[in-house]
Design goal:
The complex is a heterodimer of chains A (about 80) and B (about 375). Chain A has about 80 residues and is α+β, with helices and mostly antiparallel strands. Chain A has helices spanning about 15-25, 55-65, and strands spanning about 5-10, 30-35, 45-50, 70-75. Chain A contains two helices and four strands. Chain B has eleven helices and 13 strands. The chains are: A alpha+beta (about 80), B alpha/beta (about 375).
């Protein structure tokens, strides 16, 4: 099986997604805000997509910035 | 035309404010935080940028603790109605605007106990009076940072320390001071800070917010409105996290685009620079008015201890007549009367006629102040 290419960070609200985007950008980690994939949640909001290879860095960065997020899924 | 009504709302605004708003209306337009398409995301980003700018201005670590409201009145109503329960006791001052006093009087009808600490005729508050009013059921001190009538600055740092020492919530109304006095949420022990966008933050009307500190128990903080937030849409119950718990309904994104621009402008100018300019003008104004016979100036008479709002009367003439003649004959726009603050005027001894109020701002000049002093001198000379 191929490795997944992306992972998405699910968050409470768009404001939280914006904050994560800003923090990841300042840490030079690529990310993009996308609508939450339906298979993950019935929420109508956005989530933050990152490269699968960056997931460890992302986790470390968000822990460092003490930002809350719900979960990170591979897609 | 000379605009001396910046205490009511600042005018003009820095050009970047209208530019940002026009750009939002023409090029972005989408509902922030709702859909996931690129315009909705761009719109959400603008709202978030405004949140970050507010956080930077007040040295706030977490921008999520800013709840946007339509103005400071809504922010104060949220804090007071959301947190005070029947049987609770709250302490406030006699220099409050009706945006604080009316919700408190409304809550009083519902069983909240309210103590109003009298200030001096100059609008000064003795922090020791706050401390001696504390009772076993006191839960909050709610205070104006600066009077919208005399401009007097209240000693929030000292009151904050007292509130913290007694484990009380400290609510500050920064309607007149956000953007012109340095406010440090942490250092000043502020738990709740209400601000408005359209006065000394130089943003558009319809913007403002409440900063909710970490000591505030969110479980004991009721919403005053519920509704769509764009988050947790699968649930029919209101989300419990900030800011969504208190931000229901489509926000004023175009207004927040303007507020974001004005906040960046303030951060670039520097709060200290704005304050210095206003102190210079206020000193000139007070000194000039004091030299005119039959003119009485109210407040501290000390530009360092007040904001750029100066109240005065020409003895022998009604404030309303002065206001009309300044407008019609001298092209000076100001506000006369009670300024939505009967409590302040009772404290100053100017109730019910009120005063003439000059509210200066960053865009006013020394020449305008000189011209206005000359105008008042002319009007005062008519009194025999």
């Amino acid at each position: 099986m191929n490795e997944p290419k992306y992972a998405v960070i699910l968050v409470d609200s768009t404001s939280h997604a914006m904050r994560i985007e800003r923090l990841l950008n300042s840490a030079d980690i690529d990310c993009k805000m996308i609508p939450v994939p339906r298979q993950l949640s019935s929420d109508c909001g956005v989530c933050v997509r990152v490269r699968f290879d960056d997931v460890d860095r992302v986790k470390k960065q968000l822990e460092h910035d003490r930002v809350e997020f719900q979960v990170i899924y591979d897609i | 035309m000379i605009y001396f009504d910046n205490t009511a709302t600042s005018f003009p605004k820095p050009p970047c404010v209208a530019e940002a708003m026009v750009k939002f209306m023409n090029d972005i337009g989408a509902n922030p935080g709702r859909s996931g398409h690129r315009l909705a995301i761009e719109s959400g980003r603008i709202v978030y940028n405004a949140r970050e700018a507010v956080a930077e201005l007040f040295q706030l670590a977490d921008p999520m603790r800013i709840v946007f409201t339509s103005n400071v009145t809504e922010a104060l109503n949220l804090a007071l109605h959301g947190l005070l329960k029947p049987g609770d006791h709250v302490i406030t001052s006699s220099m409050e605007h009706n945006s604080m006093m009316r919700p408190l009087r409304c809550l009083e009808q519902k069983g909240v106990e309210v103590t109003v600490i009298p200030c001096s005729q100059q609008g000064r508050l003795d922090p020791a009076d706050i401390e001696s009013a504390i009772q076993p059921n006191t839960v909050m001190v709610a205070l104006n940072h600066a009077s919208n009538v005399t401009g007097s600055v209240l000693p929030i740092e000292k009151v904050g320390l007292i509130a913290r020492a007694h484990d009380l919530l400290f609510l500050v109304d920064a309607a007149q001071t956000a953007g012109v006095l340095t406010i440090d949420i942490e250092k000043d022990c502020i738990d709740l800070l209400g601000f408005t966008g359209h006065k000394s933050l130089y943003g558009p009307m319809g913007t403002g917010g409440l900063i909710v500190g970490e000591r505030v128990d969110l479980n004991a903080f009721d919403m005053i409105k519920c509704g769509g937030t764009g988050s947790r849409s699968e649930h029919e119950n209101q989300p419990e996290f900030l800011p969504d718990k208190f931000e229901s309904g489509t926000p004023n994104a175009v207004g927040l685009a303007g507020l974001n621009a004005s906040l960046r402008w303030i951060l670039t100018q520097g709060v200290d620079q704005i304050r210095s300019h206003e102190i210079r003008l206020t000193k000139l104004l007070i000194a000039g008015l004091k030299t005119i016979p039959r003119v009485q100036v109210y407040g501290t008479l000390n530009a360092e201890q007040q904001i750029a709002t100066v109240s005065f009367n020409v003895l022998g003439k009604e404030p309303s007549e002065i206001g009309l003649r300044l407008d019609e004959e001298f092209d000076i726009l100001c506000r006369v009367g009670l300024h939505c603050s009967p409590a302040s005027h009772k404290t100053m001894g100017t109730f019910p006629a009120g005063t003439v109020r000059f509210g200066l701002g960053f865009f006013n000049t020394k020449e305008q102040v000189d011209y206005a002093i000359a105008a008042i001198r002319k009007l005062a000379e008519e009194v025999k």
